[in-house]
Structures are given as structure tokens and as C-alpha cells.
Amino acid sequence: MELDALRNENEYLQAKLSRLEGNTIQYEEDEESKQDTHRKHYPDDSETESSDEEEEDSVAPLPQPKKGVDRKPRTSVSAEAFGVWNKKSDFKPVVVTKNESTKDKIRSRLSQSFLFNSLDEKEFEIVIDAMTEVKLNPGECIIKEGDDGDYLYVVETGQLQCSKIFPGNTEPTNLIVYNPGGAFGELALLYNAPRAATITAIDECLLWGLDRKTFNHIVKDAAVRKREMYDEFLKKVKILQTMDAYERQTVADAFSKHKYSQGDLIIKEGEDGDELYFLVEGEAQATKNIDGELKKVMEYKAGDYFGERALIKKEPRAANIEVVSATLEAVSLTKDSFNRLLGPVEDLMKRNMEVY
């Protein structure tokens, strides 16, 4: 089991490295092509370049730093390594006492944030227990650009302004307003980096704060398990078999999980649609109203997908998708994720969807 996980991680890293190397090679080829074109049209420039090189050779060496002068080390930014090859110390869940009403509020807010969509029920409860209440007055700063950070925050009530001072400016630029359900502060935890922006309360605010240890052990680890869980599944989806490990895991990160029972309608004919579904486990059928009669037009099994028509053609759902097995598990991609991640397979999907 652990060996398989290591192989998956290795495959993912190799695929990512290959993509980076490919980008570098393409860049070098583009630059060489530009230089060839330039030399073709401006042959005399070669003499100028040679002269410039000679001048550069004659430039005096840079002065050496004086002895005894302290030089500040450069700040590095790195993701905190995690995975099967990097075991963490034992984790003891943090429990901040709160009543059920408060837990329900937090549960509702967390369900609105993509950061927590990989958690199972038990993990969700651990995160809820660890959340700390934070109250802010108007104008109060909760995060300051450049500071170290040990918490991420989810907004319960109120609004907060995100601002940043860009190089060359002395005044901050307003970037985004966080509303109830919004989450911020995760970048410092994910990448072990200083705060990237300043967050200030616009009005009275109530936030829920999550500490770094709980985030790393629960939220981040859940994302890793989610990748491993869906990697093998995505390899079996015919239309996605050309994807490399990096692309598959990027898709897995964007998945939302759904569970259904026999007779449930996953998609209803005529409704607007903004999600594409992949069937992980179970069976379903597509039914359509034809001449006033509901007729079955297609069957689905694990590895099949549906719902792409509404996303590609931007039209209402063309059929019902009904669960026929006792239970069914599916994952979905939003319209934005579909456009961003599955653009290369859209043409093939267009051909396939003409079946119904």
C-alpha cells in the first residue's frame, strides 16, 4: 500500500517535472527562432553584439562586501513537505468548547469553502472542534502583509477588505472583499510563507480561525488522500486516459463528491446545468420525454460521464439521469473547472454527446 502511494507520488512529480522541462525547451526554441529572424533581417547587428561583448568584458569587477557587515539572509518560500515519505509527529486534535448551535453555524460555513470539500465526516468534526471564534471591530486588522501566519479564517458575519502594497507604491491597493462563507489566510499555511496581503474588517465581523497544525494534519492530508483515491479511477475513464499524473491529480483536486440512492435524480431534464459528473460506483440511466412518454435513452456504469451537454452547448439539461442501483457515488466538476482542466477533451465530448 505504502509502496503504491510512493509510486503515485513519484509519477506525479515526474510528470510535473516533464511539463516544466517542456516549457523551458519551448521557451529556448522560441528565443532561438527570434534570434534567427533578427539576424536574417539585421545582419550588421552581429558586429555590434561582438563590440558589446568586448565592452562587457572590460567592466570592472563588483566590489566585495566589507568584512563585519551583517547581511540579512534571503527569505525563502517553500511548501511544507508532506506525504507518505514524510511522516508527521503524532497529532492530538484541538478541542475548543462550543455548543451545537455554534457547531452548526461553522459546519454550514465550511461547506461553502472549497478548502474543506475533501474532508470526510469525522475530519469535518475535528476541524469544527478546533475552530476558534474571533471578533473584529470596524477597521481592525486580522492579517498584516509580511507577518508570519499560523491561522486561516472563515467568515461567519461581516465583510473584510483584502489589500496589498505593490512594489513602487506607498499606498495599498484594494484587491477583494471577503463575505460570509469566504476563507482566507491559507497561503501562509500551505507554503510556509509570510502573509501575502493585509486583511481589515470593514464592519463588525465574526470569524472562525483554524490553527496550522490542524490544517496540516487534517485538511492538507485529506487532499493527498483524495488524489490517491481518484487517480486509479481517472486512469479508467477512457476519455481522460491521455492525461499524465500531474493532470489527473489536478482534476482530482477539483472534484466534489456526491452520494445517491436508488430512484434519485442526479440531473433533471430542462433544468440549467453547471456541473459535469463522473460515475465512480453504481449504475444510472438517462431518460427523456419523447412525444409525451418518458423513455430510456442510455445507461451508465462506473467510469462513464454525463452532464457535459449543458456545459458545452450552454443549454438546459437534455435528459434525466436517474440512479438505478441501490447506491451510487459520483464526482463532479464545476463549469469553471471543466473549462480550465478539460478543454483538450471538449471536442471528443461534443462528438460523443450526439448519441442522445
Automatic annotation (TrEMBL):
Record-level Gene Ontology MF annotations: cAMP binding; cAMP-dependent protein kinase inhibitor activity; protein kinase A catalytic subunit binding
Residues reported in the UniProt entry to bind 3',5'-cyclic AMP 2: 308, 317
GO biological process annotation, one example: cellular response to stress
Cyclic nucleotide-binding domain boundaries: 115-236, 239-356
Compositionally biased intervals (Acidic residues): 45-58
Gene3D superfamilies referenced in this protein's UniProt entry, alphabetically: Jelly Rolls
Binding site for 3',5'-cyclic AMP 1: 186, 195
Keyword Transport: no
PANTHER family assigned: CAMP-DEPENDENT PROTEIN KINASE REGULATORY CHAIN (PTHR11635), CAMP-DEPENDENT PROTEIN KINASE TYPE I REGULATORY SUBUNIT-RELATED (PTHR11635:SF152)
This protein's name: cAMP-dependent protein kinase regulatory subunit
Organism: Euplotes crassus
